[in-house]
């Protein structure tokens, strides 16, 4: 018999994260477009990010027929958080944007799946692209060989909001993410974690 899950955070009830999920206001609107393969992922940080931000929306799919309406938010300038030749640093776009608020569109999936989302949704691919600063490191300590800049979706959103809405900080959004990691380490045992994942 399957274990009961929390209908909000989707975690098993005995490991519900809802008490750790904040409700943070942001001037920036965050639209997360999640590839369906990520929904059942053990972390699913996109869901945690959307739950923790008042001005955020999570959509799941490969093709988004209502994308024009999602992007045409009055008072917002849409941009895509994704690397590319013409991508500019997010801080630069935010400075140029003046008083207008940003609609930050964040694809959620592996690089291959994220590129597929762009391919299937040409209006998404046509958005101006922005990137985070180089050299950021993920707090996800269970990756065998974490690449610099390979952030989880929730980490990317936090870094982006910290840039756009400085001096406001959004670290509280990472509390359930940290708890998830600690839970995974506890489940595998400290010795196994040190042997397989801890770096010198």
Q: Main beta sheet, described?
A: 6 strands, parallel
Any low-confidence stretches, pLDDT <50, length ≥5? Answer: none
| Integer tally of domains | 1
Structural class by secondary-structure content: alpha/beta
CATH class: Alpha Beta
Query: Which architecture per CATH?
Result: 3-Layer(aba) Sandwich
- CATH topology, by name, is Alpha/beta knot
What spatial order of strands do you see in the largest sheet? Answer: 2-1-5-3-6-4
Radius of gyration: 17 Å
EC number: 2.5.1.25
Domain DTW: 2-189
Keywords: S-adenosyl-L-methionine, Transferase, tRNA processing
Family: Belongs to the TDD superfamily. DTWD2 family.
Key features of this structure:
200 residues; alpha/beta; Alpha/beta knot; 6-stranded parallel β-sheet; 8 helices; globular
Task: Describe the protein.
- With 200 residues, the protein is of the alpha/beta class.
- It has a single domain, classed as 3-Layer(aba) Sandwich (Alpha/beta knot), CATH 3.40.1280.
- The chain has helices at 45-52, 67-71, 90-96, 111-120, 122-125, 153-164, 175-188, 190-196, and strands spanning 29-34, 56-60, 76-81, 88-89, 101-108, 129-131.
- A six-stranded parallel beta sheet has the order 2-1-5-3-6-4.
- The radius of gyration is 17 Å and the shape is globular.
- It starts with 28 loop residues before the first strand and ends with a helix.
Quickly describe the structure.
34% of the residues lie in helices and 15% in strands. It has helices at residues 45-52, 67-71, 90-96, 111-120, 122-125, 153-164, 175-188, 190-196; strands spanning 29-34, 56-60, 76-81, 88-89, 101-108, 129-131. The protein has a single domain, classed as Alpha/beta knot (3-Layer(aba) Sandwich), CATH 3.40.1280.
């Amino acid at each position: 018999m399957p274990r009961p899950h929390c209908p909000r955070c989707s975690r098993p009830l005995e490991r519900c994260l809802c008490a750790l999920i904040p409700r943070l206001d942001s001037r920036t609107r965050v639209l997360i477009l999640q590839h369906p393969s990520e929904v059942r992922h053990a972390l699913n940080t996109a869901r945690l990010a959307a739950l923790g931000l008042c001005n955020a929306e999570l959509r799941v799919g490969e093709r988004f027929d209502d994308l024009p309406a999602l992007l045409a938010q009055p008072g917002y300038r849409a941009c895509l958080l994704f690397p590319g030749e013409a991508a500019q640093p997010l801080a630069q776009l935010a400075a140029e944007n003046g008083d207008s608020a940003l609609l930050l569109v964040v694809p959620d999936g592996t690089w291959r799946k994220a590129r597929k989302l762009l391919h299937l949704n040409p209006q998404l691919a046509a958005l101006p692209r922005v990137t985070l600063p180089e050299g950021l490191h993920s707090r996800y300590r269970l990756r065998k060989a974490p690449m610099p800049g390979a952030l989880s979706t929730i980490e990317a959103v936090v870094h982006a909001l910290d840039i756009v809405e400085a001096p406001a900080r959004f670290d509280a959004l990472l509390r359930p993410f940290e708890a998830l990691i600690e839970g995974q380490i506890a489940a595998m045992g400290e010795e196994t974690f040190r042997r397989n994942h801890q770096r010198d």
